[in-house]
Amino acid sequence: MNIIFLGLPGSGKGTQAELLKNEYSLGSISTGDLLREEVKSQSSIGIEIKRKMENGELVDDDIVIEILQKNLSSSSYKNGFILDGFPRNIAQAEKLEIMLNNINKKITKVFNFIVNEDIIIKRITGRYLCSNCGAIYNSFFNKPKVDDVCDKCGAKEFDKRADDNKETIINRINIFNHSNFKIVEFYSKKNLIVSVDALKSVPQIFEEIKSSINN
Ligand code: AMP
Description:
Blueprint: E1 2-7, H1 13-24, E2 27-30, H2 31-40, H3 44-54, H4 61-74, E3 81-84, H5 90-102, E4 109-114, H6 117-125, E5 127-130, E6 136-138, E7 158-159, H7 166-188, E8 193-197, H8 202-214
Helix pairs in contact: 1-8, 2-3, 6-7
The structure holds adenosine monophosphate.
C-alpha cells in the first residue's frame, strides 16, 4: 500500500499520515520534513533550501528528488508508505513513477484533501508542534488539554515552523493552486484519486480514508 496525500499546507495531511502510519504500520515520508532535516544538518545545500522554504517557494526539483530517492532506497517500507508533500508538480510526479518502477513499487491511492483557504490561513498561523514528539497543536482549534503541556508525551517545550506565517502561507497557497490541479488530473487518469473533505473532523476523515483503503 503506497499512498500519496495531496493538499494545501495545513489541510490535515500530517495529522492523518500519523494516524494511518500507526494503523497499518506504514512508513511516512514528508518531503518538507526531509528538507527541514537537511537544513538542520547545515550542509551547503541546506542554506539554499532554507532560503526557498522561508520564502514559501518550492525547492528545486533535482534537490528534492535526490533527497527523496535516498530515503526511498535506504528504508524498506515493508508494508508501504504515505508520501506527504510530493509530488508538487508534474515533473516530480513523472520522476516518482520512474523511481518506483525501478524498485518494483507503484502508487495505490492518492487522497486529495480539499479545504478552503481562509481556514488554511488560521490553521497554519495557529500551528505549533511539541519539540519532543512532534505532536501537532493549534492555538485556534486544538490546544493541549492542559495549557502548554503536550497531551502525548508531557513535554513543555513547543516549536513553530519558520515558514508558518501569514506572508509565506499566501505564497505557498498560490504556488499550490498553480500546479495541484494538474497533479490531480495526472492521477485521475490513472483512477487513483480519492477526494477528502478536509473540513470534517479528524476522526471522521480517518474513518473515510480507512474505508477507502479497505475497499
Ligand atoms: P510542507 O512541509 O510540505 O508544507 O513543505 C514546506 C516547504 O518545503 C515548502 O513550502 C517547499 O519550500 C518545500 N518543499 C516540500 N516538499 C517539496 C517538494 N516536493 N518540492 C519542492 N519543494 C518542497
